[in-house]
């Protein structure tokens, strides 16, 4: 049995190649991959050869947001059948280190994460037609394969939302309307936020945010002073999901957060200048949010039950043979939010 794979050799050197697929061992399955979503980390690997200190040091198959259909079962696999639709959880904590023992699996000291260049050898990803994977990484779902492939970024947003005790009735701002910002919008709606305002620079992403549940959207590129009204009386928003990690946004969000409000930092970047006088003066809680663990299965369930509709974020789909065009589209936020590659076309 063979499969085609999308293997990156270095900066802008992505090749579609053939390789053999092994038979599944005990506790493993073969998944026929249907869709894979292009994430920011995939773009960094392709465009820059990595991000920060993480570099592509050997050929790596990209992709950690993917779903498909069970094609074959290894020995001793229970709970899954050939033909089941599954989302594949890319997170593989060791289960034994001090943080896993404390239930902080997302901080595992020996984490294996599919499609990541953090370790050497690299963890090979899911951008391929078939993958042999541990059955425990597969979560059955009842939605379309395209929707199930959105489970990983949705899990990130569900984990972020749990940084606050409750969103019910809260005034929430989503800063940045890329895929994570759009899904944070949907999550805020699901958890009952009373008012959801989304800020971004692109009309396309803001239109998608409206479909995901935003009560109001602001194109800050066209309305530079549109947030000023929210800065009156020391600020307005009780919760802010910061999804851009843009320096230009930091002072804006600190001006509109109300005293003792919470900023959940979901977007990542390098060093930023933070006006500590505002942070201290308003007693703002600024919380980082890293990955997920139980939220992955929760994301699959919410998608399958129709409680969160992720379909509006999938704005472009390309066949595997056009993976380079897919990556190009994913870099253009004026036209795309979440770009997926179809591996079964």
Do you know the CATH topology of the largest domain? Answer: Quinone Oxidoreductase, Chain A, domain 1
Q: Distance N terminus to C terminus? A: 18 Å
**Biggest beta sheet attributes:** 7 strands, mixed
Highest-level CATH class of the largest domain: Alpha Beta
Looking at the structure, what is the overall shape? globular
CATH fourth-tier homologous superfamily of the largest domain: Medium-chain alcohol dehydrogenases, catalytic domain
- The appropriate CATH architecture of the largest domain is Alpha-Beta Complex
Order of secondary-structure elements: EEEHEEEEEEHEEEHHEHEHEEHEHEHEHE
**Structural class, judged by helices and strands?**
alpha/beta
Count of individual beta strands = 20
The residue ranges in which pLDDT falls below 50 over 5 or more consecutive positions are none
List keywords for this structure.
24% helix, Quinone Oxidoreductase, Chain A, domain 1, six-stranded parallel β-sheet, Rossmann fold, alpha/beta, 345 residues, 30% strand, seven-stranded mixed β-sheet
Walkthrough of the structure:
With 345 residues, the protein is α/β, with parallel strands linked by helices. It is 24% helix and 30% strand. It has helices at residues 40-48, 98-101, 145-148, 151-161, 179-190, 203-211, 247-256, 276-281, 295-304, 323-330; strands spanning 2-10, 13-20, 28-37, 50-51, 54-55, 60-61, 65-73, 85-88, 91-92, 112-113, 130-134, 138-140, 171-175, 195-200, 216-219, 237-242, 257-265, 285-288, 314-319, 338-342. The strands form 5 sheets. Strands 3, 7, 8, 11, 12, 19 and 20 form a 7-stranded mixed β-sheet that branches. Strands 15-14-13-16-17-18 form a 6-stranded parallel β-sheet, with helices on both faces. Helix 7 links the parallel strand 16 and strand 17 (257-265). Helix 4 packs across helix 5 and helix 5 (179-190) runs parallel beside helix 6 (203-211). It starts with a strand and ends with a strand. The model has no long low-confidence stretch (mean pLDDT 96).
């Amino acid at each position: 049995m063979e499969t085609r794979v999308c293997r990156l050799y270095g900066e802008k050197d992505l090749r579609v190649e053939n390789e053999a697929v092994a038979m599944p061992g005990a506790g493993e399955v073969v998944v026929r991959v249907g869709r894979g979503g292009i994430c920011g980390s995939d773009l960094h690997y392709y465009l820059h050869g990595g991000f920060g200190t993480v570099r592509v040091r050997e050929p790596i198959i990209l992709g950690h947001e993917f779903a498909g259909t069970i094609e074959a079962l290894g020995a001793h696999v229970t709970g899954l059948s050939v033909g089941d639709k599954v989302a594949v959880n890319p997170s593989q904590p060791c289960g034994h280190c001090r943080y896993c023992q404390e239930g902080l699996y997302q901080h595992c000291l020996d984490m294996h994460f599919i499609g990541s260049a953090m370790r050497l050898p690299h963890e090979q990803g899911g951008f391929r037609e078939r993958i042999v994977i541990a059955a425990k990484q597969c979560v059955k779902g009842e939605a379309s394969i395209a929707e199930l492939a959105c489970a990983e970024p949705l899990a990130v947003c569900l984990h972020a939302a749990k940084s606050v005790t409750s969103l019910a009735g809260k005034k929430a701002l989503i800063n940045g309307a890329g895929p994570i910002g759009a899904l944070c919008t949907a999550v805020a709606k699901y958890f009952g936020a009373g008012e959801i305002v989304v800020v971004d620079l692109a009309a396309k992403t803001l239109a998608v945010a409206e479909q995901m549940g935003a009560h109001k959207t602001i194109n800050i590129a066209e309305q530079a002073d549109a947030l000023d009204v929210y800065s009156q009386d020391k600020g307005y928003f009780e919760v802010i999901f910061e999804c851009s990690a843009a320096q230009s946004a930091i002072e804006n969000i600190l001006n509109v957060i109300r005293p003792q409000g919470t900023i959940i930092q979901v977007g990542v970047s390098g060093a930023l200048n933070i006006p500590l006088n505002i942070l201290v003066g308003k007693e703002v809680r600024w919380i980082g949010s890293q990955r997920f663990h139980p939220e992955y299965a929760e994301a699959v369930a919410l998608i399958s039950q129709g409680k969160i509709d992720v379909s509006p974020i999938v704005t472009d789909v390309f066949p595997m043979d056009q993976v380079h065009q897919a990556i190009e589209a994913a870099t253009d936020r004026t036209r795309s939010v979440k770009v997926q590659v179809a591996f079964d076309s």
